[in-house]
Amino acid sequence: MRGEQGAAGARVLQFTNCRILRGGKLLREDLWVRGGRILDPEKLFFEERRVADERRDCGGRILAPGFIDVQINGGFGVDFSQATEDVGSGVALVARRILSHGVTSFCPTLVTSPPEVYHKVVPQIPVKSGGPHGAGVLGHSVADLRAAEDAVWSGATFITHLFNAMLPFHHRDPGIVGLLTSDRLPAGRCIFYGMIADGTHTNPAALRIAHRAHPQGLVLVTDAIPALGLGNGRHTLGQQEVEVDGLTAYVAGERPDPLGPRSQPACQVAHDPPRACPLCSQGTKTLSGSIAPMDV
């Protein structure tokens, strides 16, 4: 009760001249915030007789929750998979510059590397100790469905970008992909899975299949590489050299296989999927947020 009274006495901030995504459309509306929560302006005025303490003109820009990217391998020339003596400064640089792409939180990730890279890099970027059980992430695995189900019972909760570097779906044994509809998981356990929805890494039809099978678990990721934000040319990604051409990156000398985005804004990754994947545009309160009264 005391917390609610404190919030009621906090300053009210009104964002004006902004565009807000509602129902798949960008609408021109004002947004009212107090104590980190979005307000219903009608209740604020008629029930509390309050007006905004401060107004900020957004200049017609889109106002949206910050994107959370849980798979980013680097950016702006910083490669998280390089065994340097000061990994933290590189992470800090990416954290500052990636704000212009709409990303406010991210998880630094490493590509497959020699063991010595992990031993040198990982201890430098601890945020929260996962304890002896680890983070519980599946992916880059040849596990069959039974092994994947056993992993979930042991604490696994997330699948690194679905369909990539894992056994392909088969009707007799769907492999890790089968976790999306498995009936052998702990009661109430939600399996989350990352997908790169750029139309290249994952065919739009595969994206729709996954979303329709398990919409609550979909997490959009960019899988961005160190060339994010840089120009065309050759750059590094872990132990590989990559070539950037426009918004696409390839292993140097090999054109067929695309890698992560170079300078694609996080919002652009979700530009096309919303038409067939409502979760991407509507968001969820637990993962990507939404803009509605009482949202944090």
TrEMBL record:
Keywords: Hydrolase
Coiled coil: none
Record protein name field: AMDHD2 isoform 12
Sample GO molecular function, one term: hydrolase activity, acting on carbon-nitrogen (but not peptide) bonds
Residues annotated as transmembrane: none
Domain of life where this protein originates: Eukaryota
Keyword Hydrolase included in the entry's annotation: yes
InterPro entries, per database record: Metal-dep_hydrolase_composite, Metal_Hydrolase
